Amino acid sequence: MEPIGDSSSSENNNTNSSSMMMISSASTSSMASSSSSPPALSRYESQKRRDWNTFGQYLKNHRPPLSLSRCSSAHVLEFLRYLDQFGKTKVHNQICPFYGHPNPPAPCPCPLRQAWGSLDALIGRLRAAFEENGGKPEANPFGARAIRLYLREVRDLQSKARGISYEKKKRKRPPPTLHQQGSSSSAAGVLPMPPSSSSGANQ
User: Fold this and answer.
1) Has keyword Lipoprotein (predicted)?
2) Which among 37, 38, 46, 165 is least surrounded, fewest beta carbons within 10 Å?
């Protein structure tokens, strides 16, 4: 007969080895699943995908339905005007007493439109998505001259109607550091100060 202690220790060893194998296999499977999962999209990429799907749905609902290969800048302009019904930016008419007022003190019946900044960013995303989905850059309807002119017209109209400026502010350059000042002075050919005459007299 074998001692009882020896049999129990062997059973414990078998149990520990089997549990370690289960842990290692579980960790291996979790690592494999994490490595196979696709990376999360950035906010820009997610918005670009949603915009592209929205435009594709607009082409399907068009009467008659349009394919992407037949899409022109005229259809893009129709899409932009279609989006105006979902806008949230108040654009005052010229007869409105608040025309050109950046902060109107009371409500008015002027229509809501898509803001110029939103349309400009939208066109940028769709222009990139078009080429990422197989479109040729020279045939990109989102980069056509008619689209640029329309966006410029919307910008000018909304700027006057809302009394705000869309001009980009120039960034102020930070003041140069002492190291930059020293390097610039040496580069400019500034010679070092000669020794004073008093020091020569003392010698």
Assistant:
1) no
2) 38
| 168 in a structural domain | no
Q: Phi and psi of 113, rounded to 5°? A: -135, 165
DSSP string, 49-99: HHHHHHHHHHHHHSSS---GGG--HHHHHHHHHHHGGG--EE---TTSTTT
- For the chain, what is the domain count? 1
Residue 185 scores a pLDDT above 80: no
Residue 103 lies in a domain: yes
Q: Which pLDDT tens digit goes with each residue over 111-152?
A: 999 999 999 999 999 999 999 998 999 999 999 999 999 999
Quick check: helix, strand or coil at residue 14?
Answer: helix
Residue 115 lies in a domain: yes
Torsion sign over Cα 135, 140, 141, 142: positive
Task: Look up the domain containing 74 and give its range.
Answer: 41-162
How open is the CA angle 126-128-38, to the nearest 5 degrees? Answer: 100
Q: Does residue 200 belong to any structural domain of this protein? A: no
What confidence tens digit (pLDDT) does each residue in 54-70 have?
Answer: 999 999 999 888 888 88
Cα–Cα distance measured from residue 19 to residue 60, given in angstroms and rounded to the nearest whole number: 57
